[in-house]
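Need tokens for this chain, all 602 residues.
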Amino acid sequence: MRRPVARNLAVLAVGAAVLSVGAAPPPDRHEVPSRHTPKVPVAVGHGGAVSSVDADASAAGIEILRKGGNAVDAAVATAAALGVTEPYSAGVGGGGYFVYYDARSRTVHTLDGRETAPLTADSGLFLENGEPIPFAEAVSSGLGVGTPGTPATWQRALDKWGKRGLGTVLKPAERLAHDGFTVDETFRAQTAANETRFRHFPDTAELFLPGGELPVVGSTFKNPDLARTYEELRREGVDALYRGDIGRDIVRTVDKPPVDPDSGWNARPGELSERDLAAYRAKFQPPTKTSYRGLDVYSIAPSSSGGTTVGEALNILERTDLSDAGDVQYLHRFIEASRIAFADRGRWVGDPAFEDVPTEELLSQRFADSRECLIRDDAVLTSPLAPGDPRDPEPCASGDEAAPTTYEGENTTHLTTADRWGNVVAYTLTIEQTGGSGITVPGRGFLLNNELTDFSFAPANPAVHDPNLPGPGKRPRSSISPTIVLDRHDRPVVALGSPGGSTIITTVLQTLTGFLDRGLPLVDAIAAPRASQRNTELTDLEPGLYDSEVRQRLETIGHAFRENPEIGAATAVQRLPDGTWLAAAEKVRRGGGSAMVVRPAR
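Here are the structure tokens for all 602 residues:
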């Protein structure tokens, strides 16, 4: 059932604008927000918008917008600042996916900045004596580090679509690293969770455990090494990393991890080379596109599974009028559509440079209809569910044996920006685990990723082809789902994304359906308690759902649940009918997010 949404979006816009008035007083329209600006989850105004998890990072993007930069410039500035204040989530040593809406041409473009395996890697990268090594040992090692893609993504995005150069947009982050930021509860808690493994690596312990202790809430955390790294990137460009001294330092660190010999930790060496860095490219590629309720939903294509999996689930839900469904039916359909889409993702999605990924077929309504008929309102599908065959869809049929969902680290970060010309960016970047590999490049001030652990260590079923095994120069599969929705006139309606490993897909899907179908203002669609089903026996529920009557009613159908204290941390921007922007972020998760606009509406 297709349902017009334009009238609903106008109503939501009014509700969101009213909500923003009482949230907190906005910064003065003529001032650049300081690093002590409080977090506000929603803001409405003119001239552009930025939404991220951190007030300092959002302020960096707003600074660039106020100085004449566009949404791309602001996105890079915000991302670089997140590398300072959210170093356990993202940074120079990681990668990500960048989705851009060009207002002049009314088209969507994407950049795949995913990390790559060394050119010497093969399918046995994580095997020893024919058996997979323990996951935790792979994480904190050189073996799990992929070629960083973030700096290349910044440069390519700026060269193609930006108005300012790297030398300009890195200045706020460089200043922030030099002057420092105020430690909050989230930063201290994340440091504490990683304290043991951080102590395995002397350079990491020196940086993130100052004086040998956890950083104190309210203290100022400075990173002069990262400030110097940003200054070098500003001066020399990203060749300083891909062909210069920063890159050589990365290679030495990966190939001989600087571990404390007294720790007893086996930090297996990687095989990254200067050749790998020189060969790296952030890839321009067409976005995925799905039609939903008369709107066009664009996202990132493989190597990420985000666009295909969110898109397939939306296609499955297209036949259900979610606006009139009760809470139980809505969540039941949402959970089952997610289960099915994840079953198909596990079988078919990998790096298209190495795998024959049927992207178009996965996103076809014909395939979705053949899968949707599996859903019953009075029963629950069994997990792990076997995949269907998008190349030859048969109604209610399943194909090969099921492939379990591989683990992905949850501490990624997402930012969303818009500018006065109407351009929009949804950008998700990551170093994978909270704290990545745990290995800091000596003298450089940033952690290295452990993205290669997103590969399957071994086939889940030797009889079925696994598209996510390692390979030379291959990108591991991701769940990152930066998404931009356009109306029938190809104008932006909403842009959003989230961190959360494999829960990214369900977070984006639930936020979209909450906003487009359920009538929630954007900030409330983000704040709503979440469920996440990824083709597993148990569905994750946040406390707001786990402790509710809805959970009990779903259990009578056959659902089984486990409690998850926090799923995702979304940010978004919405274009309002009068041309203003609404920026929205989390109210509570990860300490709350930070929404800002250039000129707040009075």
